[in-house]
Amino acid sequence: MNEAAVKNAAPARAQNNVAGLLVLALAAIALPLIPFVLPVSDYVLNIFMNSITYAMAVLGMVVVLGYTGQINLAQAAFFGFGAYAVALGTLTYGMHFWVSFALGLVVAAVAGLVLGLTTLRLGGHYLAMITISFQQIFDLIIVNWIDLTHGPDGIAGIEPPSLFGFHLTDKRAYLVFCAVVLYLLIWFVWWLPSTRLGRAMRAVRDNELAAETIGVHTLRTKVIAFTMSAVLGGIGGAFYAAGFSYISPDNFNFARSVEFLTMVLLGGAQSPFGAALGTVLLILLPEWLRFLKNIYLAIYGISVILIMVFMPEGIWGLLRNSWNKVRKPRPLAVESVPALALDIKLEHSTPMLKLENLQKHFGGLKAVDGIDLEVAPGTVHALIGPNGSGKTTSLNVVNGIYKPTAGKIALDGIDVTNLKPHDRAGLGMGRTFQNIRLFQSMTALENVMVGAQRENNPIESGREALTQRAMAALQFVGIADRAHIVVRSLPYGTQRLVEIARALAGYPKLLLLDEPGAGLNQSEKQELVGLLKRLRGHGLTIFLIDHDMGVVEKVSDKITVLNFGKKIAEGTPQDVLRHPDVIAAYLGEAPASGTA
Amino acid sequence: MEALANNLQVLFQGLALGSIYALVALGFVLIIRATNVVNFAQGDFAMLGAYAMVLFLVGLPGNADLGIPGFETGVPYWLAIILSVVVMTLIGLAFNYGVYYPLRNRSFLPVLISTLGASIFLQNTILAIFNPQPRPLEKLLSSDGVTIGGVFLDSQYLVILVFTVCAVAFQYFFFEHTLLGKKLQATSQDKDMARLLGIPVALMIAITFIYSSVLGGMAGILIAPILFVSIGMGSIIALKAFAATIIGGFGDVAGAIVGGIIIGVIESFAAYYISVPYKDAYAFLALFLVLLFRPQGIFGEKVSEKA
Q: Are A45 and A28 in the same domain?
């Protein structure tokens, strides 16, 4: 009964989608053709022109801010690179439009790349500041380097380009051309999130540390995002310059960057359609608010605050959320999901993980003070110790989040001491976190796919294999039926499982689990023990930290006990948990008479 | 000999200018420590302080479109300062409740953008009330300044230096030796713990905003006679003050002061020896270099994210 209803509903919804897309497409085609049919003034044409070229730059903000979560307050500078390249290239240096255009994009791309590289060390406020500084310096240069840029007077007489021998002097024809370019760019930006790169970007946005740890080259991802954003800004600027035939520095200053930012936030930073909508609205707003005269900009400032308070995902976010409420989630066919393969080929047989004299000091605090440890392949090895004994620090050093003060780490015989976390993930080191670190706004499936797309993952290439692998991992932990649910709305225990599936999808040689039992109730802990035993049955090597002796005792082959950053005992669970030093570390020294 | 005097003159100006940046930077740092958010309208507090002085010392030009009548005032300078501080207190309070409080549980990005919106709002409101023309403001002291050993010391610059020293001393005393100061510190270090100890965290943050607003306002009041009062005066001060907080060490009080002074001195010397039109660029250049080679700043500690 239910299944039949679902089967009937699916095509109906598909029809709705198709109808909606058709309406959207028709409107999109019709809009730039209006000037050919109806008599419109130059003024209206300029508003069209403005919207289309600004929207291109705002699409760049979608990529860098909406997808990748990096603030960029220099988009107007990139817009300016494109505009000045076309103006100076064609007028001062007499180059062909498209040559100047390409040069402008190259310059913008290089600037975006450099700005992106600063994210190596800086995020958040620093990045905001750096991009503002960049914008200010750009502004100072175009105002003051008068020999090159004509300074505040600007440059007039920029001609529109020709295309396949057809000169686009008719403003209406040029408009149609720009609209087509815009639609292509919107399509590209819309398609991007479902690609490997797009998923990596969103992973960086939602949780950069987790992304890096499971194999995303976070710096490269951010640099690409900035570069793309800069190129999109440059394209917009170039067409803007040719469309208005006159440019001056005040088109490209900090205020314009803030305007681009507001446009993307108003429309919805996560969607190219939202960005286009926000751009058009914010260009029309001053026309509608004309009666407010000179307090218009003050109202504009207030609306930025109101958008942040009441519409955190912008207008498009509101529309999409209400659409999602109406739409029923599609049930998934989980029967056809393949079994999860975990038997990865090893380079060297023993040991899987080797720590030699590992040390990590924070100032005077010796959190990890010379640990030697070997994890044998195919075993579950637990690291325990009282609070503050250096367990999580050890794990963070093993995994590359912290640089060790001294010592050596080898994974499967390969020295990884100086590698970045994503490179270690690329060699087969998977990990989960004590306080769950998932990509909260992505679905369970997308989360696990990010895990599956680590470098060197020995699965077939292509999207299909990636999806299969992710589904298999979800099926293994028993939640494949919830693959399309956004992680944020899953219960805590299920989120833990998603995190384990994300690590498994990466085909790990070694799985690091940081307190996998933390926060689980008794029955969930039982399930966890079952899952860990199954993983051991598949021959996976696991190195785990936990407080719960019940869990540790049941699953471990070997236990290492830390206290004050040093190893105090090691052996089988039975031996170690009866070791007097271990009892002393957990319960305090036994009275002297007891030891006698 | 003359070269030395010239250099001392430039240094003196740099120190005074740097003090202004330091005052605004202090406001930045206090808000960063209390709320973990950079207030992009911090510079506009300086602009508002300066316009409050214009309002009380001179009056309003009036704006017929908005139905704002023009009038002349002319209260004594000391009273104008007190009234301006009162105005800044109210603005700080309004800022806290209008811009920060509704977004207090969200990540830094929405709050940062909200303060940008506030900056646009404040600048354009002032633009509508006063007109775009920059306005001069008279100095606090009637004397122009003194000349010592061939170095001319402008009276307003001296006032700025004296005020900054006093403000820093006051702040040290306030945070280290008063109960309210300790509560503010506790709030900035660990909000949850402070709340558990019965410290009214929301009130502490409101006080922080008020204090920052007044500090920024005083910076504006002091620099106004030198720079002219204009709508955009705050933005450029704020950018440099923020650069100062990074150079000094993000969130570090001593760093903000030292960073501000470093930027002021660099800017003065670069403008004197290299080029005036690009004087604003040197601060950013210094910032780039610091970020490249010592991103944690002079006094900052390296922090790594905890997993």
A: no
Q: Is A372 helix (H, G, I), strand (E, B) or coil?
A: strand
Domains and CATH numbers, chain B: 2-293 (1.10.3470)
Which residue of B24, B121, B301 to mutate against A (max A Cβ within 10 Å)? B121
The pair of three-digit structure tokens given for residue A189, joined into one six-digit string: 């930006």
What are A157-204's pLDDT values in tens digits?
Answer: 888 888 777 777 788 889 989 999 999 999 999 999 999 999 999 999
Among A140, A298, A402, beta carbon nearest to B304: A402
CA distance A166 to chain B (A): 44
A23 with A111, same domain: the answer is: no
Q: How many CB pairs under 8 A join A and B?
A: 133
Q: Of A216, A237, A252, which one is at a domain's C-terminal end?
A: A252
Higher pLDDT among residues A383 and A296, named by residue = A383
Residue with the larger pLDDT of the pair A22 and A150: A150
Enumerate the residues of chain B whose CB falls inside 8 A of the CB of residue A402.
Answer: 304
Determine contact: A137 vs chain B, CB below 8 A.
yes
Nearest to A144 among B63, B277, B291 (CB): B277
Q: What residues does A431 pair with on adjacent strands?
A: A512
Whether A58 and A26 share a structural domain = no
Distance, in Å, from the CA atom of A170 to the CA atom of A432, rounded to the nearest integer, reads 60
Does residue A578 sit in the same domain as residue A542? yes
Asked if B291 and A118 come within 8 Å (Cβ–Cβ), the reply is: yes
Helix B253-273, helix B233-248: angle, nearest 10: 120
Cα(B106)–Cα(B112) distance, integer angstroms = 11
Q: What count of residues does chain A have?
A: 596
A10 and A147 housed in the same domain: no
Q: Which structure tokens are listed for A511?
A: 């799985």
Q: Which two tokens stand for residue A54?
A: 């600004």
Same domain, A105 and A73: yes
CA closest to B279 among chain A residues:
A140
A582: Cβ–Cβ under 8 A, 6 or more apart, which residues?
A561, A568, A569, A576
Q: Kindly state whether residues A160 and A204 are assigned to the same domain.
A: yes
| pLDDT one-digit tens code per residue, A218-262 | 999 999 999 999 999 999 999 999 999 899 998 998 889 988 988
One DSSP character per residue, A275-335 reads HHHHHHHHHHHHHHGGGGGGGHHHHHHHHHHHHHHH-TTHHHHHHHHHHHHHSPPPPP--T
Q: How many domains does chain A have?
A: 3
- With CB atoms and an 8 Å threshold, state whether A301 touches B114: no
Chain B residue numbers touching A302 (CB-CB < 8 A): 117, 121
Name the residue facing B239 among A124, A132, A301 (closest C-beta).
Answer: A132
A409 and A528 within one domain: yes
Domain CATH number, residue A559: 3.40.50.300
Q: Which domain holds residue A20?
A: 1-33
Tokens read off for A477: 């932990």
- A134 occurs within a structural domain: yes
> Do residues A175 and A48 lie in contact, with contact meaning Cβ atoms separated by under 8 Å?
yes
Q: How confident is the model at residue A592 (pLDDT cuts 50, 70, 90)?
A: low
Distances (CA, A) of B23 to A396, A535, B164, B246, B279: 40, 59, 7, 14, 20
Q: Is the CB of A401 inside 8 Å of chain B's CB atoms?
A: yes
- Rounded to an integer, what distance in angstroms lies between the CA atom of residue A289 and that of residue A282? 11
Who's near A416: CB < 8 A, 6+ residues apart?
Answer: A400, A409, A410, A423, A424, A427, A429
Please give the Cα distance from A80 to A57 (Å, whole number): 10
CB-closest option in B243, B278, B291 to A122 = B291
